[in-house]
């Protein structure tokens, strides 16, 4: 199949403005500590993944909500500069989503998330954008917006056979596995454990069991990322491993979202599954070379160069 370098990808998801305080150590309950610095960055899994897809050449439409505050205005302008179609990003009364993050000298963190405008992305609001989903080459979604909205978007995609790529983070205990069809599920080892109740490290010895679980949950393909270890790819045909791209990581916060965005772009272009994973592995690795969820997301040419090296 010929590769379409301008495949349409719809991302349904969150946008947050992150406030990151650098501290020597994280505070105990009731304790006050001084921060050495405070940084303001654009984040939220939906926007992170949309940005990764756009930088890989996809025609990205982001469906979500921003507040009518200065943060919302700044975020919309930021997304537009990245070439993301924001016509389905609604401005609602109130504040844009925020994350307050304390990071200590060891890289450990504490995070408080205020959903803000993200909570306004309701299922009825999502239905207003159904035509965008129904003509997309792929739908990419996470779980930082209301669960009913996630489920509705998947149902709309299922109705028109649009491939659904789900990165179920943060894990939601009430996700209706088996009631909607997921083309590709992207998780890390910890998330795989939570969803399937089994250790992904043992997948090779229990392939048939894992296949059964995928069938029960209506998942066609399972991808398990494992940091520096090879990525596991399980389909009805069997288990494959795709080698990780080796780098000296500086900050891993954006790696997972970059992987999802890059993978979905190549899937939408019609690339073979393992090639999609190879690109995504390299993109996710390169994203760890800079601090910040979006700052390190590589462009397609950077990933191509890394794969050719």
Task: Give structural notes.
With 309 residues, this protein is of the alpha/beta class. It has a single domain, classed as 3-Layer(aba) Sandwich (UDP-N-acetylmuramoyl-L-alanine:D-glutamate ligase). Helices cover 33% and strands 27% of the residues. The chain is built from ten helices and 13 strands. The chain has helices at 45-55, 70-81, 123-127, 130-134, 147-159, 189-196, 207-216, 255-268, 273-286, 300-308; strands at 8-12, 16-23, 35-43, 59-67, 89-92, 97-103, 109-114, 138-141, 164-166, 182-188, 219-226, 229-235, 238-242. The strands form two sheets. A nine-stranded mixed sheet has the order 5-4-1-8-9-10-11-12-13, with helices on both faces. The protein has a four-stranded mixed sheet with strand order 3-2-6-7. Helix 1 (45-55) packs across helix 8 (255-268), helix 8 (255-268) packs antiparallel against helix 9 and helix 9 crosses helix 10 (300-308). The longest helix has 14 residues, at 255-268. The radius of gyration is 19 Å and the shape is globular. The model has no long low-confidence stretch (mean pLDDT 95).
List keywords for this structure.
309 residues; alpha/beta; UDP-N-acetylmuramoyl-L-alanine:D-glutamate ligase; 9-stranded mixed sheet; 4-stranded mixed sheet; 10 helices
Q: Reading side by side through the largest sheet, how are the strands ordered?
A: 5-4-1-8-9-10-11-12-13
Number of helices: 10
Biggest sheet, open or closed, and with what strands and sense? 9 strands, mixed
Compressed to H and E, one letter per element, the order equals EEEHEHEEEHHEHEEHHEEEHHH
Please, what is the average pLDDT? 95
**CATH architecture annotation:** 3-Layer(aba) Sandwich
Q: What percentage of amino acids are in beta strands? A: 25-35%
Number of domains: 1
The CATH superfamily is identified as Ribokinase
- Give the terminus-to-terminus CA distance: 26 Å
The CATH topology is given as: UDP-N-acetylmuramoyl-L-alanine:D-glutamate ligase
Low-confidence stretches: none
Function: Catalyzes the phosphorylation of ribose at O-5 in a reaction requiring ATP and magnesium. The resulting D-ribose-5-phosphate can then be used either for sythesis of nucleotides, histidine, and tryptophan, or as a component of the pentose phosphate pathway.
Catalytic activity: D-ribose + ATP = D-ribose 5-phosphate + ADP + H(+)
Keywords: ATP-binding, Carbohydrate metabolism, Cytoplasm, Kinase, Magnesium, Metal-binding, Nucleotide-binding, Potassium, Transferase
Domain Carbohydrate kinase PfkB: 7-299
